[in-house]
């Protein structure tokens, strides 16, 4: 294309407001000729193949075919200069910039769009656009890996937080929520519809069934020794057999708890 003539542009964004804002800005510049508005990735691919635009404003997060997939679907000869429109944070923007791909971070800023247009025009005027497009696929693969790693890291952090929260029991007492670490609990016994949680020399009352409480507690730390009693196995300092088949546990606190015959095998497995 001869310099000083308009370059053709396509906009692809599934958000109507973003698409309309981009269109209004592009239509006001004498440097670009808007030739297509696309609502999704499939329309964007078709526009690039059939219209051969010089520039495309390409949203990354679109349903179905996203912006990355649009680029991967295009042959080098049909690929325009890409100006990504993205809600991703700074690390993605830095990667785009490193690979000579322009970007606009959402929410869209009119001044930022105009700077991106100016930057794109300079590049198209001053050098072969193929030099710009060549590293694009590699950039996308790199960015995709970074995004995947970031998501995995966040999921790992979330998992750690979830595990941490599962290591504590929350007890509401007179409008105050008390946090009791599992390791502080000695034993628990049922009193009707309530559970008495014995921890660090105090007894806390919770309205919960024993089954529901067992689901909250760490199964590697707590064992049921009676239909109404749970014990922290790390508090057990001795176990003695009883004449009629049960056994007696002695805890570090000096408390003695009876293990019923129905639960003696489950208790024994922790001490083998």
Can you describe what's shown?
The chain is an alpha/beta fold and 272 residues long. Helix content is 38%, strand content 31%. It has two domains: 7-157, Response regulator (Rossmann fold), CATH 3.40.50.2300; 168-271, LytTr DNA-binding domain (OB fold (Dihydrolipoamide Acetyltransferase, E2P)). The protein is built from nine helices and 15 strands. The radius of gyration is 32 Å and the shape is rod-shaped. Residues 158-165 have low confidence and may be disordered.
Looking at this protein, list some descriptive labels.
single chain; 272 residues; alpha/beta; Rossmann fold; OB fold (Dihydrolipoamide Acetyltransferase, E2P); 2 domains; 9 helices; 15 strands; 38% helix; rod-shaped
Output the CATH homologous superfamily of the largest domain: Response regulator
Rounded mean pLDDT is 77
> How many DSSP H or I helices?
9
Structural class: alpha/beta
Total separate domains: 2
Share of helix, binned: 25-40%
Radius of gyration equals 32 Å
How many E strands?
15
Q: What's the helix and strand layout?
A:
Blueprint: E1 7-12, H1 16-28, E2 32-38, H2 41-51, E3 55-59, H3 67-73, E4 81-86, H4 90-98, E5 102-105, H5 110-126, H6 129-133, H7 136-165, E6 168-173, E7 176-181, E8 185-191, E9 194-199, E10 202-207, H8 210-216, E11 222-226, E12 229-232, E13 236-241, E14 247-251, E15 256-259, H9 264-268
Parallel strand pairs: 1-2, 1-3, 3-4, 4-5
Antiparallel strand pairs: 6-7, 8-9, 8-12, 9-10, 11-12, 13-14, 14-15
Helix pairs in contact: 1-5, 2-3, 4-7
Please provide a brief summary of the model.
The protein is of the alpha/beta class. The chain is 38% helix and 31% strand. It has nine helices and 15 strands.
